[in-house]
Amino acid sequence: MFNDPSQTRPFVGLEGSLGDPGVQIVLGTVAGAFVLAVSAIALLSRRVKRELRAELVRRAASWGVMAPMVIVPVLFGKLPTTLMVTAMGVLCYREFARATGLFREKVMSVLVIVSILLFNFSALDNWFGLFMALGPMSIVVIAAGAILSDRPKGYLQRVGLTIMGALLFGGCLSHLSWFANEPVYRAPLLLLLLAVGLNDVFAFCIGKLVGGPKLAPRTSPNKTVSGAVGAVALTTALTFALGRAFFQSNLRDAPHLLIMGAMVSVLGILGDLMISSIKRDVGIKDMGSIIPGHGGVLDRCNSLLLSVPALFHYVAYFHGVGEEEPARIITGGW
After folding, report:
1. Closest Cα partner for 128 from 308, 321, 334?
2. End-to-end distance of the chain based on CA atoms, in angstroms?
3. What is the DSSP pairing of strand 214-216 with strand 220-224?
4. What pLDDT does residue 8 have?
5. Which pLDDT score is estimated for 310?
6. DSSP for residue 293
């Protein structure tokens, strides 16, 4: 899809990762962005309010911890990548369930966890038929399973929240795992994660610097139109510049890169606003507090929920994903 298909990558291992020019470009960009952020904080330390300075320091420190936790599994191969995405899905659902009260429904929560595991297993197995069937089948099992408790009161809420959890944190997020079925996947996947992460940073910084009208004041009071426009412009430019540097397929063409960059940015912002809508609906500020300055895991992964599946199917339509690898790697003998 993205590079020479004759190259192969191990199921687990670093072979071919650090020597990949695309990986070197993305990692260099990550390092440069972090150094730039730390330098900017140091320069602004005397010009901004103490509260904002403390907030920026917390965010920078958290990114310094989070970036390796995401980058290292991707570098070490398909299995670590899939395990990382699975863990992200489970942690996101945990926070979602606690925020919405769904954690009290033990059976429904088990169904969501099983769904997350199956989505990621099918990606690991390169079993596209199962991957596509799990969405509707999850809805069937959840809707039917909720009937067995014979509690019509609250049925719609229980089923709706459970289906939402299964499809968002299983179906949508597991498309990240599916990208790892490509022979050379590390650089594009790291670029996607970098673009999504920096999209939030661009929106935050430009919104603080420029200000102006609020984007969705009742949903997310701190987001501005200027921040969103700036994020779309810069994220699209970043995707175009890095994509042109190492993509070697028809996706390297300017229209594709511009569309993909804008798609990641716009849907990243909408994913953020979607989770903000849920938080406002249930009356909480953050989904968690595990990440200083950022809230919970879901507060960091929200931008992936809508952008990743959209990007996956865009790429699959124009080039295919995982078609050059053997199908059903694990279950092929069943």
Report:
1. 321
2. 29
3. antiparallel
4. 40
5. 96
6. T
Confidence at residue 250, expressed as pLDDT on a 0 to 100 scale? 86
d(CA 45, CA 26): 28
pLDDT, position 208: 82
Residue 153 φ/ψ region, left for φ over 0, alpha for ψ in the -120 to 50 degree band, beta for the rest? beta
Distance from the Cα of residue 57 to its chain's centroid:
23
Residue ranges, the chain, pLDDT below 70: 1-10, 41, 44-48, 52-53, 55-56, 59, 289, 291-294, 333-334
For the record, the structure tokens of 142 come out as 């959840």
Structure tokens at 82: 């899939």
Which amino acid, one-letter code, is at 100? T
Residue that is written with structure tokens 């990692």 in the block? 27
Judged by phi (left if over 0) then psi (alpha if -120 to 50, else beta), residue 77 lies in left
pLDDT value of position 46: 65
- At residue 252, what are phi and psi to the nearest 5 degrees? -75, -15
Question: How far apart are alpha carbons 207 and 295 in whole angstroms?
Answer: 19
Contacts of 287 (CB under 8 A, 6+ apart): 95, 96, 99, 275, 279, 295, 296, 297, 298, 299
Contact 48, 212 (CB under 8 A): no
